[in-house]
Design a protein that fits this description.
Blueprint: H1 5-41, E1 49-53, H2 56-75, H3 77-86, H4 90-108, H5 114-144, E2 148-150, E3 156-158, H6 168-191, H7 199-225, E4 227-231, E5 247-251, H8 256-260, H9 266-283, H10 287-309, E6 312-314, E7 324-325, H11 333-363, E8 370-374
Helix pairs in contact: 1-2, 1-4, 1-5, 1-6, 1-10, 1-11, 2-11, 4-5, 5-6, 6-7, 6-10, 7-9, 9-10
Amino acid sequence: MILEFEVLRIIWWGLLVVFMLGLILYSCVELGVAMLLPVVKKSNLAPQHVYISSTGGRLLWGVQLLLLGVSLFYVWPLLFKVIDSSFPYLKWLMMSCLFGVPISLRVRRSFDSSFMQLCLDFTIAILALTLVVTLGNIMGQLFTGVPFEFDQQHNIVSRIALVDAFQQVPLLTSTLLLSVILLLGSVYQQKQFHDQSFVIYKKIVFLCGVCMLGLMSALAWNVADMYGYHVSSVINRLGMQPTSKQVKVMNGLWLDNFEHMPVLKILPITAVVSVLLSMLMMFFKQFQWAFKFIGAWVVVFIVSIYVIIYPFVLPSSVLYDHSLTVWDSSARQNILNQVLWVYVIAGLSVFLLASQLIDKFDKNQCLKRVVKINL
């Protein structure tokens, strides 16, 4: 079954959003707990253990996320080539942090020395902090644009500089993502103790919640006032050449999609309400609901970013006409169609097979457990 080229591109754009969302949701709790280790260690009000989920279900979704990531690599080749040329060490940095945090958390249990545990606490926290700040910075550069262009032979020429990472919007998104990950880690820790309430986690939640509200206001102000991108030429929805269009840049154009579809304004409203409800639920000791509301904020935030920049997937801050859009940066129709069905079949197979194995192991209490790290 061969789907229309335009439909395939929309489907894979949606899966790109799902992948980014899954990447953050999959690792956010572990990263939040990891960054809190040095803080919890010094607090007399903290619990005697740190809890990290280690269930078979989490492993299943990790495999699904890996399958989707590999599929996206073949579907959006130009996007990954630009990212690789613009941030040559990014993939190694993120992979080392992504795998380094859970491995270090488990290695930490084998040491009885307080000094070694303290050293590992700070190492784990730095790894987690590096990963969160890097992801947040990349999200910020989706608004400001990445400095790349195509030469006459259609090779990618990157003009990335370290100063690009220290622009106002990337710094705001980095700090905002850091706040929400710390908040998620604190709420997750607190909800493990249904009959106890710990002051340290409540303080972190309210501090991060207030920071998030302020940072969201500052980010919205910057996005509304900064240069936005808009395709001014006729969009060739069957095109394959990213340099054949014309792009205009003006202040406030990133909000163009909200003007054309007013219903999208519910996204920022939902984000603010989610933070307030999470803080309120924490105050009333409804920790499970607090965790769900802040998880909803993550979903709304990631979806909002991609809705704002649509149809762009990676704007260029050097030559605006060379920006990558949904309509000119994907692979060919046959590749999109083949990879989609391969992903669907492989994903369903892994889900069904792994579900049976997990149910079998869960009955034997092999995978369904909680890892305790003594502090």
